[in-house]
Amino acid sequence: MSAFPEGFLWGGATAANQLEGGYQEGGRGLSIADALPGGKDRFKIVAQPDFDWTIDEDKYTYPNHMGIDFYHHYKEDIALFAEMGFKCYRFSIAWSRVYPNGDETQPNEAGLKFYDAVIDECLAHHIEPVITISHYELPLNLATKYGGWKNRYLIEFYENFARTILTRYADKVKYWMTFNEINSAAHFPVMGQGLVPSTGANDKRNVFQAWHNQFVASAKAVKIAHNLKKGLRVGCMILYATSYSYDANPKNQLANLQENQELNFFCSDVQVRGEYPAYTKRLLAKYGLTFDDLETNDGELALLKQYPVDYIGFSYYMSSAVETTGQVKDTVNGNLMGGVKNPFLAASDWGWQIDPTGLRIALNQLYDRYQKPLFVVENGFGAIDKPDKNFYVEDDYRIDYLKQHIQAMAGAIADGVDLMGYTPWGCIDLVSASTGEMSKRYGFIYVDLDDEGQGTLKRYRKKSFYWYKDVIENNGLEKKKPKEDTTKAPISLDLD
Question: Where is the active site (predicted)?
């Protein structure tokens, strides 16, 4: 018997800014993703004091502008998802396609019609849409004119955007998430909050104010959804990296506890429990702040309490280890974060430590803490795929990674965790958020496109495509036992 419940939401995940393309078609405005240069140094570039969101095509490349041209290929791609047997497809709606500048009062109907078509295509293939309202694609105007999410005007603009799409799709889309990896701003606030050094990214007061504004906006989205239609479910979405103390040194144990509070739990504590946690005072004091330094009011705090999220979506790629005594010098890279090297773990080509057991731990930690349904909405293995002459990729390394993480999820379900579904990241190759490259591939589907934007854009099924199709068909890794045929009459043997 499969460990996964009937109705488990198997699928895949993408983001508009990494695959759609068509960045100036259909009345779409520019987003912050359009101004992020491609290449491994993209985060270093935007961290410079003089970065001002200027798009300089003579100096940089911008692979997000074309993505994989999902804007013109969505029917083909969704058909491939259906061939794999997807029960759901997690994607985002580009805010600037609906409100080009973010601050308009009326939406762009052409943009909405595009998402009408995408959603209807999913439903025609019996695929449940799972929509992220804001996924690293803040309208560029809201970053340049208003300074990003530190500005409280953005609460109103987001509420208007959320109301527009929730109202339009309430009868078609049941599952929503308010902000992608909202807690990633702890390390890098550019993507989630639209803050760069020139607009105050290095001042933690701005980061915490931006978070508060997003918490309020999220609660408003939950309120809108719950008032629109019974049964709509709105979740938060966090980046979760299971964190270990490097050793039994109490100093490292305490540092790990505090690391978990700041990165893994702070944003979800507010969005799920509906109030700021007790450790907020210590956390703010770490940066020389008090809660009075933030602009809040009693009405907003009451709103947070009244409209917490319905479930917790999260990404899981790797774990981290905390060592504060300076005894360990060997460090690793990670998903917007790093840490010391864990000697018990292998790593990907990009230095992300592979830890499927950490996913089982994460699921137990989150469910023990919140007792609300969980949804693994990102997980995957970024690698350099080498197709043969027919563009077929033997990606056993990806299959092995995903298999181990699915086994970890099965273990967590056996532990008693309420897990809704699993949508591996980049189910079709797309532009990497961390490096702006095509060469860092996650998908079950190979897209013929390189880092310089050259290629046919044709889609090809990888080995993992057929493997994942089998996983979904069997509702897990274990093969279903064929049902015994009881309709046939028993065989009689005539013995001479």
Answer: 378 (nucleophile)
